[in-house]
Amino acid sequence: MDLPRVVEPDDLLSQPTRARLFALLTERKQAVDTQELAAALRLHHNGVRAHLERMEAAGLVVRTRAKQARGRPRDQWTIAPDARPGGDPPSAYAELVGWLARAVTPDPGRRRDIEATGREIGREMAPRDGGGATDALQVTLTALGFAPSVKTAPGGTVTYCLDNCPYRDAAREHPEVICTLHKGLTQGLLDVLDPHIKLAGFEPRDPATAGCLIELTGVEEVLA
Prior knowledge:
The chain is an alpha+beta fold. It has helices spanning 16-28, 34-41, 45-57, 94-102, 108-125, 133-143, 168-173, 175-193; strands spanning 32-33, 61-66, 74-79, 148-153, 157-162, 198-203, 212-217.
């Protein structure tokens, strides 16, 4: 997820430390605890926690509590599914994506190559912290700017509704390229997170209104 191109002075992310925290959480694409974030920025964890709590109050990040064998649970932070840095829906390198999509001819054979490339990218970016696959997928989709909401159904079926398309301009002009790449990326994430989970459905929608659906079957764990 990109930071806004123009940051207003009264925007929460106009403060450099908070901007760096938001960028770092976006880059990690998984839950990160306060101490780890503080170490990455070489700042005291109390100050970092104060910034994160302000970002939480503004709806930019979400806090969860990770239990430990001893002591109090640790605070862990991820990008909020409906985060709007700068007040706008997130976008992701829109111009670059559009240029690359123009360079690809989406004939049937090429689409297979595009999906395979997306799958390889998904495997590379998948979190490897040992957490639940569906939670990790939600965190990754959130970090990419898709603002996913999740529904579960009996029998191990989980459906993600992507409430934002960060590549909406490119997807509008080159839907076969962008959506095929995203489908492959999703499958690549699942290859690493849990190869037993099946990508049963991938339904693109109008990028202007978003709402694309990802349906998974064979899910054993329960979403937090």
